[in-house]
Design goal:
The complex is a heterodimer of chains A (318) and B (54).
Chain A lengths: L2 H13 L11 H7 L2 H17 L6 H25 L1 H6 L15 H22 L2 H22 L6 H5 L1 H4 L1 H10 L4 H23 L2 H7 L4 H5 L1 H24 L5 H22 L5 H27 L4 H6 L1
Helix pairs in contact in A: 3-4, 3-10, 3-16, 4-6, 4-7, 4-10, 6-7, 7-10, 10-11, 11-14, 11-16, 14-15, 15-16
Chain B lengths: L13 H32 L9
Chain lengths: 318, 54
């Protein structure tokens, strides 16, 4: 039985529909549907892209852009939960989401996601610019159609390619200001793109049974523990120089450079530990997963402090 | 002669009523925020709000 057919079999019970019962869903359930933690990361990286872009944007326009990006991210989350309701019900990590718990019906999640996504794209285009709006629309399409519907259940490279969806927000923020993209936002895109595989594969290493039970062909399920650890180190080796690249290209200052070098060294150390872990897989992979979040946050936070809105450090030291 | 239907239709429980009310209030706030946003953005962009490069 292939992974795709296994996933389809799981869909059966959730696809059955009877007479519609009035909903018990609360506002909190719909907020949970939008994956607020993912939204916050998206907003933060978009904020950095917006802040470091050359040019200026009225604060209200900037707020509008970030609001639309946040709502677009929420729409993507809702649509993901609509489609993945069957596998979410099987996995421990996701079984308490609103749709598998029965608080929101799949059709309601679909309608909610489509409505939010449409509004976010149109409002961003009307009130900011259509380049940013087009990028947001493509991001939502990529995450829902390319990643969730196609790649996630069909290839162990799902998170590599699908991770591009999470890498677009800084470009969208940049485009909101400039109406275009250039090398610098592409660098930010590449940092997140190559950060995504080691981050999620570290998670998958200690959630292998969960993904296997749901029929998701994550790398540890398909290729095994050892191969996944090698891939984690390989992508970390690519990620760390990319993290330093903004400093090497002269886009950032010394503070970012030092941060990128130090945190990159820690990432490589943790990746090495994952590869040569003699203890149970959980500890090293959990450490890498946790630190990878801090790594990305620090890079973007320091970039924001150093370069945001003309450079806070430059202004404070002038 | 027409017959009265036997059932009274869907009758919501108190919990369902509370949930629906909370959702309705949230939708109302969201729509109001959208109206305010469009109004403020029109003021920000000024008279030539529709005349701008893509």
């Amino acid at each position: 039985m292939s992974f795709v057919s296994a996933g389809a079999d799981l869909r059966g019970p959730l696809a059955a529909s009877g007479p519609a019962e009035p909903s018990l869903a609360t506002v909190g359930d719909y907020i949970a549907l939008m994956k607020p933690r993912v939204m916050s990361l998206v907003v933060f990286t978009a904020l950095v892209g917006l802040a470091v872009a050359p040019g200026s944007l009225h604060p209200v326009t900037a707020f509008t852009a970030l609001l639309c990006i946040a709502v677009g991210a929420g729409a993507s989350g809702a649509l993901n939960m609509w489609y993945d309701a069957d596998v979410d019900a099987v996995m421990t990590r996701t079984a308490r989401r609103p749709v598998p718990m029965g608080r929101i019906r799949p059709g309601e999640a679909l309608a909610f996601g489509l409505t939010l996504g449409s509004f976010a794209v149109v409002v961003l285009g009307l009130l900011v610019n259509w380049v940013a709006s087009t990028l947001l629309a493509f991001t939502i399409f990529f995450y829902v159609v390319i990643y969730t519907i196609w790649l996630k259940r069909s290839t162990p490279q799902n998170i590599v390619i699908g991770g591009a969806a999470g890498a677009f927000p800084p470009m969208i923020g940049w485009a909101a200001v400039t109406g275009s993209v250039s090398l610098e936002p592409v660098l930010l895109f590449l940092i997140i793109f190559f950060w995504t595989p080691p981050h999620f594969w570290a998670l998958a290493l200690y959630r292998t049974e969960d993904y296997a039970r749901a029929g998701i062909p994550m790398l540890p399920v398909v290729s095994g523990d050892a191969s996944t650890r090698r891939h984690i180190l390989l992508y970390t080796l690519i990620l760390v120089p990319l993290g330093v690249a903004p400093w090497a290209f002269g886009y950032t200052g010394f503070l970012y450079g030092i941060t990128a070098v130090l945190t990159g060294a820690i990432m490589l150390t943790l990746g090495w530990q994952v590869l040569h872990e003699s203890r149970p897989a959980e500890r090293a992979s959990r450490n890498l997963f946790a630190f990878s979040i801090l790594y990305l946050f620090l890079l973007f936070a320091v970039l924001l402090v150093e370069r945001g809105w003309g450079g806070l450090i430059t202004r404070l030291t002038a | 002669m027409g017959e009265q239907p036997d059932d009274d239709g869907i009758v919501l429980t108190e919990a369902q009523k509370r949930a629906r009310r909370s959702r309705s209030i949230a939708i109302a706030f969201a729509l109001a925020a959208l109206v305010i946003l469009f109004y403020v953005m029109t003021l920000v962009k000024g008279p030539a709000v529709l005349i701008r490069p893509i």
